[in-house]
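FYI - complex with zinc ion, inputs then prediction.
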Amino acid sequence: MQFTHVHSRSHAGLEAPSVTVEIHLTAGLPHFQIVGLGDSASRQVYGRVRSALLSSHFKWPDFRITVNLAPTDLPKGGTRFDLPIALGLLVASGQLPAQSLDDREFFGELGLDGCIHSFHGALAAAMEACRAHRVCGIAAQDAEKIASVTGGRILAAPDLLTLCAQLKAPTPPLIRTDFAFEAPERQYPDLAELKGQPLTHEVLKLAAAGGHHLLMSGPPGVGKTLAASILPGLLPELPPDTQRQVNLLRDLAGLGFINGPPLRQPHHSSTIAALMGGTAKAIPGEISMAHGGVLFLDELTEFPRPVLNQLRQPLESGEIWVSRAAHQHRYPAQFQLVAAMNPCPCGHAGSRESACRCTPDTIRRYRQGASGPLMDRIDLHVTLRRPPPECLLSGTDTPDYSATVRPDIATARERQLHRQGALNRDLRGENLIAVCSLSSQTQKWLIEAMKTLQLSARSTHRRLRVARTIADLEGSTSVSVEHLNTAVGLREAPTDTDAAQA
Ligand SMILES: [Zn+2]
C-alpha cells in the first residue's frame, strides 16, 4: 500500500481535536516532508522517526514520503505525532497490516532507540479518544493513571517494537480500568497552627465560606504566608468536573495529578505570560493552574502594575484566552485570590513594637501599588498584628482545626449556591441587596454607618457581601445589624482604595 492514514489528536486549550495523519509514498529520490510544517520541524521528526524505526529492526521506506496532518488549520506543535507517523510509514510500506490501525488512535514521542515517551497533554487526548470510542495507543509509563481517569480502553507499550507486536496479535492486551487511580491528597497546614490570631481564623473562615478574595496587610512574620497556605485546606471537595479540569491542566504543564484544590504562589518577578499563560507552547499560566483553588500573591506591591491589571478580566469571567500564533486557546481560571503586603517598605508602620523608618511619601507611593481596579474585586481587606509571645508557647484557647470548621464552610457554601446559584463574592447590585433582606431598622443602621465612616458605594457593597457570608455561616436568612457590625469592624488594610475614589 502506498497511502494510509492514522488517527491522532492535537491540542487546543483543554480540548484535543482530532487530527488525521496522512502518509503518501511515491517513487522518486528518497525525501521526507511534512506538509505545513517548516523544514526544520520536518527534519527533527524525520531524525527521530527514522532512528526509532531502524533501532526497532524495521526498514526505512526508500520513497518520496509526504506526510499531511489534516485538518491543516489546527495548531500542531509538539512531538506527539512521532508515533502515528511511524506506524503510518510501517503500514504504507507493508511492514504492518493495515487493519491493525482500525478504530485506534495513537500519540507519543519517539526516542532514537524506539522507546515511546509520554508528552504533556496526553490525558486530554486520551479522554477525547475514549469519547470517540476508539482504543488509544500511548506510552506505558502513564497508561494506568490515564486509563483509570478516562475509563477507556488503552493499548500501552514501552517501545515501538512491543507496540507493533501487540497490534499484530489477534487480541491485543488492553489495559482496563477496574480500579480508580487515587491522586495523593494535598496536605495543607492546619488552622490550629496559626496560634493566638482569632481575627485571622475568622477571616480565613469567611474567605473560605463566601469565596471572597482576601488582602492581608501586616508586618513580616505575622503569618500571612501560613494563613494563605491554610485556606485551600478549608475549602470543600471539588466537584468532579472541576477536579478533572485541575488534573487536565496539570497534565498539560507536566505536573502530577492532585486530589483537592490547588495552591499556586507565583513570585513577583513572574512575567505576564507565566502568570496568564501563552508562552511559545500556549501552556496554561499560574492563574489557570490555580483553577478551583487559591492564587497567592505575596508582596503584592512588588508585582508590576500591568501584571496586576491583567488579573481583573479573568477574575470576572473565570477564564482566560491565550494566543499562540494564529490560534486562541481557552483555559479555565476560577481561582480565589489571596494577596499579602507589608504596611510600608520597612514593614513596621502602625506597629507597637518597632518604629517605622519610612517617610509619609514613600509609604504613600508603596501603598499605591495596591490600589486601583483590582482592589475593588477583593472583599476582605484586613490588617494583621503579631500575636502576644505567650500565645506561641501555651494553648491559651481551644484551637479551631481545619477538619472541624470545614463542614460549616461547606454548608454555608451550599446555602449560597441553593439561594442564588453563585457564591457571595459574585453578588452585585440589586441581587446583593435582595439576598441580604435587610429590615428597615438594619437599613437605617447601615446608612448611619456609611455617613459616619464615609463609606463609598463600592466599599459598602464589599461589606454587605461579607455580612451575607457571616449570616450564612450562622444559618440566618437575613443580614442583621450584628452581622453588618462584624463586617464593618474588620480592620481595613491601608490601601487608599476609598481615598482614591473620593
Ligand atoms: Zn516603614
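The pocket of zinc ion is lined by residues 344-346, 348-349, 356-358 (CB under 6 Å). Confidence is low (pLDDT under 50) at residues 496-502.
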